[in-house]
Design brief:
By secondary structure, the protein is α/β, with parallel strands linked by helices. Helices cover 36% and strands 13% of the residues. The protein is globular, with a radius of gyration of 19 Å. The chain is built from 10 helices and 9 strands.
Length: 308
């Protein structure tokens, strides 16, 4: 029996009541590298998910001169229980100049591969699709050879009728894909059973539908998704989620450990070990994912430009 068929595993991780395990203690990074990237971001009045989300890899990524830009401002209209980004129903008005400032920052940092993500902007008519299309256009006006990956919210809402909502979501998605990102990423975040508790305002099936639609609309653009572990999921549920992602032809996968940003956020249930991440990564490859990143400190944009 292959490991892809094995859907149970003995838990060998440690509980969060114990000291943070050594495999989760990431280096801070070189201060000068950190300051160089932070200076560009601050000068352009931008935000990065690296800082807003307290990513454990920001020291390593900044040293490589990379960052994931957070579009739409620092306030999200969703209130997911795991996320450090500030929540609110009245974010700042749409900033028409943000796209140009992102392009200036990309140019100043000398980036060749850019990752764009965004807060959920359910207050905007297109739910934030224009944040991505405008930023991609501004970046390419300066350098059309820059590769751009997008990590989007679900673009859902604005209609009570589900058929109308799906049609509007598809229209917003089509606009983003028409801008030709090199990869379309939308995170499932957690297993189906935990969606309501972890992802407030989003649903498991809606996210799978978005990824399926992306493959239908632009089959030449690879799709990607990610799961956080340590929220109370079981091994077989993780494998089930991976199977569901492959059923909508998702090609790329990231698996990483959830780390609680503050006491106000959902607690960590357990710390999965590096060996368990390796086992899940192997199962993912056997299921047919072409690119798999699986490890305690892996995040959605970790080494996004590098082949696995």
């Amino acid at each position: 029996m292959s490991s892809a068929q094995r859907t149970t595993s003995r838990y060998s991780g440690i509980t969060p009541s114990e000291r943070l395990p050594t495999w989760l203690r990431s280096p801070i990074g070189n201060a000068s590298d950190l300051e160089a990237v932070q200076a560009v971001v601050k000068q352009q009045r931008l935000h990065t998910i690296c800082e807003e989300g307290r990513c454990p890899n920001r020291g390593e990524c900044y040293a490589a001169g990379t960052a994931t830009f957070l579009l739409g401002g620092p306030i999200c209209t969703r209130s997911c229980a795991f996320c450090q980004v500030e929540k609110g129903q009245a974010p700042a008005p749409y900033d028409a100049e943000e796209a140009e400032r992102v392009a200036e920052a990309v140019e100043a940092m000398g980036l060749r591969y850019v990752v764009l993500t965004a807060v959920a902007r359910d207050d905007l008519a297109d739910h934030g699709a224009c944040l991505f299309t405008n930023a991609m256009a501004a970046i390419r006006r300066r350098n059309p050879l820059i590769a751009i990956e997008v990590l989007t919210p679900d673009f859902w809402g604005g209609y009570r009728d589900e058929a109308e909502a799906i049609a509007a979501q598809r229209q917003r998605l089509s606009a983003v894909l028409a801008a030709e990102p090199v990869c379309f990423n939308h995170n499932l975040e957690t297993v189906e059973r935990l969606q309501g508790e972890v992802r407030r305002g989003a649903t498991y099936r809606r996210s799978l539908g978005l990824l399926a639609a992306a493959r239908e609309i632009a089959p030449q653009i690879p799709t990607k998704s990610g799961l956080m572990l340590g929220l109370g999921e079981h091994f077989d549920e993780v494998v089930e989620a991976m199977n569901d992602l492959r059923a909508v032809d998702c090609q790329r996968l990231t698996l990483g450990q959830y780390l609680r940003p503050s006491l106000a956020h959902i607690p960590v249930d357990r710390y999965w070990t590096p060996a368990e991440f390796e086992q899940l990564g192997q199962i993912a490859r056997e299921l047919g994912f072409a690119d798999v990143r699986s490890g305690p400190l892996v995040r959605s944009s970790y080494h996004a430009a590098d082949p696995a």
